[in-house]
Specification:
Helix content is about 65%, strand content about 5%. It has 14 helices and four strands. Keywords: Membrane, Plasmid, Transmembrane, Transmembrane helix.
C-alpha cells in the first residue's frame, strides 16, 4: 500500500469519526430552523466550507493548491437540488447521516442505499442526452486567505481554549463541539483534496453508475477505499459511543426510505453531486452551481418535513447548547 493511499485512508477515517460525533446533517439543520428558529447546524455547514476555503487559499499561497472542477448554474442543478432535498427529508437523513444511522442499527437505511444507484441510473437512462459541460477547473488564490484569516484565528483560539478547559474529555465525549468537528472535517477534507482530489460518498455512488463524468471517477479505487474508511470511522464512533442498536424494519418505512433514496440518487445526477460534495468542495471552490443547489436541497428537505408533519409524523427535536447539538426522533 502506497504512503499516499495510507494517508488518504487515515484522513477518511478521521473525517467519518468527526462527522458522526458532530451529528452533522442538512435535514437536521432544516428541522432545527423549523422547530427552534435557530441555525447552529446551518452555520456549521457554512463554517465547514469557510474552513476548507481558507486552507485551500493557504495551499494556493504555497503554490500547492489543487485544481477543482466548476459546474455551471442551470435548471437541472436547481431541480436536482430540490429533488435531492425532498428525498433527504423523506429519508430523515442526507448523505453522511444515512450511513451514520445505518451504523447505529437503523437497517432500514439499507433501502436508501439501494435506492440511490437506482435513481442515478434512472436519470442516466431517461435523459441520455443530458449534457454536462464543466467550466474550466481552477484553484483558489492565496489572496483569499486575507479576509478569512481573522475569522480563522478566532476559531482556532476558541477551539484551543475549549480543549485547554476540557482536555481529553472533549474527545471522549459522545458529542463533539460543532466548531471543533467542522475544523477537523475541513482539515481532513483538504488533505484528501491535496492527496487524491475531490471525494464524497455521493461521488462514489455516482462513479458506480457512470451517470456523470466526475473527475474523481478517473481513479475509482481510491474513491471507494476512502468511502470505506469513512464508513468504518462512522461505525467505530457509533460502537464506542454505545449508540448501536438493531432497529426492526417495517414495510412502510422500507418503501419510504427506498423511494427517498431513488429521489436522492436522481437529484445527485442532475446537480451533479450531493450535499456532501457541495459543502466539501463545491462551495469552497466557488463553483457557480454549488450554493444555489445546496439551498435547493434545504428547500426540498423543508417541504418534505412539512408534508410529513402534516401527515402526523413528528419532526426530530434539535437541542443545541454550548456548541453541541443533539437530535432525537
Amino acid at each position: 500500500m502506497s504512503s499516499v493511499l495510507s494517508a488518504s485512508l487515515l484522513l477518511g477515517l478521521i473525517l467519518g469519526i468527526s462527522a458522526h460525533r458532530a451529528g452533522l446533517c442538512t435535514v437536521k439543520a432544516v428541522a432545527e430552523v423549523l422547530t427552534t428558529r435557530r441555525g447552529w447546524f446551518l452555520w456549521s455547514f457554512a463554517k465547514t466550507s469557510l474552513w476548507t476555503m481558507a486552507l485551500l487559499s493557504f495551499a494556493g499561497a504555497l503554490g500547492i493548491a489543487p485544481t477543482l472542477g466548476q459546474w455551471p448554474l442551470n435548471g437541472p442543478a436547481l431541480i436536482g437540488g430540490v429533488l435531492f432535498g425532498l428525498g433527504a427529508g423523506a429519508n430523515g437523513a442526507c448523505s453522511f447521516s444515512t450511513l451514520a444511522r445505518l451504523a447505529e442499527g437503523h437497517l432500514v437505511m439499507l433501502f436508501t442505499l439501494i435506492g440511490w444507484p437506482i435513481g442515478m441510473a434512472a436519470i442516466h437512462l431517461a435523459i441520455p442526452d443530458l449534457q454536462y459541460a464543466p467550466l474550466a477547473a481552477r484553484h483558489l488564490s492565496g489572496w483569499l486567505l486575507l479576509p478569512l484569516a481573522p475569522w480563522v484565528l478566532w476559531e482556532v483560539t476558541r477551539i484551543f481554549k475549549r480543549f485547554g478547559d476540557e482536555g481529553m474529555a472533549m474527545l471522549q465525549s459522545a458529542h463533539w463541539p460543532l466548531s471543533f468537528s467542522v475544523a477537523v472535517i475541513a482539515v481532513a477534507n483538504v488533505g484528501l483534496l491535496l492527496l487524491t482530489g475531490p471525494w464524497s460518498f455521493t461521488s462514489a455512488l455516482i462513479c458506480t453508475t457512470h451517470a456523470v463524468p466526475l473527475a474523481s471517477c478517473e481513479n475509482p479505487s481510491s474513491v471507494f477505499a476512502i468511502s470505506a474508511a469513512a464508513a468504518i470511522g462512522i461505525a467505530v464512533s457509533a460502537m464506542l459511543r454505545g449508540s448501536f442498536r438493531i432497529r426492526r424494519i417495517r414495510l412502510a418505512a422500507a418503501l419510504r426510505h427506498g423511494s427517498a433514496g431513488v429521489a436522492m440518487g436522481a437529484g445527485s445526477v442532475l446537480i451533479p453531486g450531493g450535499n456532501d460534495g457541495l459543502i466539501l468542495f463545491g462551495m469552497p471552490a466557488l463553483s457557480p452551481h454549488a450554493l444555489p443547489a445546496w439551498l435547493g436541497i434545504c428547500l426540498g428537505s423543508g417541504v418534505a418535513l412539512v408534508i410529513l408533519r402534516a401527515f402526523g409524523r413528528p419532526l426530530m427535536a434539535i437541542r443545541c447548547n454550548n456548541d453541541i447539538c443533539r437530535a432525537t426522533l
